[in-house]
Every structure is written in structure tokens, then in C-alpha cells.
Amino acid sequence: MVRRSGNRPLPSLLYAILDPAQAEGRPWDFILHALLEGGARVIQLRAKELAAKDFLELATTARAVTRPAGCLLIVNDRVDIALACEADGVHLGQEDLPLSVARRLMGKQRLIGISTHDLGQAQEAERGGADYIGFGPVFGTFTTNTGYTSRGIESLREICQAVSIPVVAIGGISEANLAEAWEAGAHAAAMISDLMRADDDVAKKVRRILALRK
């Protein structure tokens, strides 16, 4: 179990999102092992299309693998799944459980991240005690229908300057543009499709990404 991050950056510049629905036929656990082999230290597990029982089975397996690797496991949307598999935290959208309720259930030691799409939402999440926020979509995305248009780098920069908790840039982030997100002040950049659908070796891709800021 981890301590709340406060102003402490997340332990990695890369915030990997693992979604079995985006695996394009490859075993999700193969991708998970490749992410860890490459050095990923924050992985969000997302499975919007799975029944609760199947999601829990997947999350429990992921927890057993990520814990010895020293990798934070964040569960998307589902506080119940996060608690049941002993994940390090949960990531919630604007339509999910309220932050105050999630905190009461999750406790102070587990992380809670909140998806935000404008300055007001970002500041509200910080005031409410979120450990970090996701902001976007920065470049737009075909992976998740957020209902929001692309926010752009300048909006990301504004958010990073306006809040003191870590900001994770999300939405259309790829190896080709994630440096822009870091330079705008994001503590980490979330990647999903560019990792899940990578043509080359996933572990090699993660190492290459992490090497960009060494």
C-alpha cells in the first residue's frame, strides 16, 4: 500500500494504461509483462467492457504481478474492484463516484486520481483531496469518447501552473508527442493505444520512452 502523494510526483514519467479491449488479439498479460520488463512503474487497469467478476479476476492477476515489480496498480472507475484486489489506487471520471465518497471508502493511504477537462474541474479535484489529476484530451483520442474536444498544449500548461498536485496528460498521447506534454509541466503522460497497439516490442518501446528524459 502506498502513501498519499501530496505534491510528490508520480514515480514515473510514463503512466501506462492497460485495456484488454485494445490488445488487438494479443494476450493482455503478455502486454502487462512487457510493460513491466520495459520499466513501467505506474499502470492503470481499464476494463469497461468486462463484467465485475471478470474485471476482478483480471485485476487480481495484475496485482500479483505488479506488486513484486514495484509498480503502482491503479484501477479505472471501480472502487470496489480496487479494494478487492488491493490496488494502490483508483482513477475516477466526472460521472463516477464523488471524490469524497471514494476517499471514505479507499482511505487516506491509497491514491485517487480524477479525470478533469477544464480549470474548474482541476481546481475542484485538488480542493477535494485528489492525489493527482488526469487532464485532457490534450491531443484528442479515438480510444475513449470523453465528449470533450481537444484541449491542446497551452491548456495543459495552464492547468499544470494552476494546481500543485501531479498532472497526468491524457488523450492522443504518443511517443511522437509526449515530450510536449512533459515540457508543458505534466508530471506524467498517459499512453494507451500507442502502447497497446505498438508494432514493435512493447518493452523496448517503454525503455525508449523512459530514456527520453534521462
Layout of strands and helices, then pairs:
Elements: E1 14-18, H1 28-38, E2 42-45, H2 52-66, E3 72-76, H3 79-84, E4 89-92, H4 99-106, E5 111-116, H5 119-127, E6 132-135, H6 152-162, E7 167-169, H7 178-183, E8 188-191, H8 193-196, H9 202-211
Parallel strand pairs: 1-2, 1-8, 2-3, 3-4, 4-5, 5-6, 6-7, 7-8
Helix pairs in contact: 1-9
Provide the descriptors you would attach to this structure in a database record.
single chain; 214 residues; alpha/beta; TIM Barrel; 37% helix; 16% strand; globular; disordered N terminus
Question: What does this 3D model show about the protein?
Answer:
Strand 7 (167-169), helix 7 (178-183) and strand 8 form a beta-alpha-beta unit. The chain is of the alpha/beta class and 214 residues long. Helix 1 (28-38) packs parallel to helix 9 (202-211). The chain has helices spanning 28-38, 52-66, 79-84, 99-106, 119-127, 152-162, 178-183, 193-196, 202-211; strands spanning 14-18, 42-45, 72-76, 89-92, 111-116, 132-135, 167-169, 188-191. An eight-stranded parallel β-barrel has the order 1-2-3-4-5-6-7-8, surrounded by six helices. It is built from nine helices and eight strands. Helix content is 37%, strand content 16%. The model is unreliable at 1-7 (pLDDT under 50). It has one domain (14-211): TIM Barrel (Alpha-Beta Barrel), CATH 3.20.20.70.
